[in-house]
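Notes for week 9. Today we move from apo structures to complexes. The key idea is that a small molecule is not decoration. When we ask for a structure prediction with magnesium ion present, the ligand SMILES becomes part of the input, just like the chain. The input block below holds both the sequence and the ligand string. Read it once before you look at the output, and try to guess where the molecule might sit.
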Amino acid sequence: MRTLHSFGPEDTWALGAAIGRAAFPGTVVALQGELGAGKTVLAKGIGAGLAVTTRVQSPSFILVQAHLGGRLPFWHVDLYRVGDVSELEQLGLDELVEGDGVTVIEWAERLSEAMPPDHLQVHLEGEGNERAITIRGTGPRHRPLEEVDVC
Ligand SMILES: Nc1ncnc2c1ncn2[C@@H]1O[C@H](COP(=O)(O)OP(=O)(O)OP(=O)(O)O)[C@@H](O)[C@H]1O
Ligand SMILES: [Mg+2]
């Protein structure tokens, strides 16, 4: 586990970009934190680190947005409005996380036990412009991502 301190959106974005550069096929990132914690800012950084060419936005009513122009397919998922498990089945999340892309899930706490056992947990909390960001690889494949170089 590693805790980083962010003093503004650009720091959070830079961490995302570092994760995006280090991501491998099958990377799954679970973003946790309150409304406005910076999950989408971090997802935008991951997209930049993967060199996607399409704009990463707050998915709002779209559960999953695909960005296919980068180094790896990037699936940006937002579970904020997901009601129940049947919606998740429709979403095909299992297929996404088992595939060769990079899946980034906002509000991942809504999935809890449905998450693949080996993933990267990113938890953001704080107020004003400051955030404490804790990253934890939950298994051997994702653990090296804790050591990414943030520049
Ligand atoms: N250190 C920081 N890191 C990230 N965002 C920050 C930071 N300081 C201020 N902010 C601001 O907080 C907001 C974070 O918004 P963002 O959409 O990324 O949150 P979110 O966690 O995705 O929220 P939601 O739950 O609504 O999806 C932005 O307006 C951003 O500018
Ligand atoms: Mg968001």
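Residues 1-37+49-100 form one domain.
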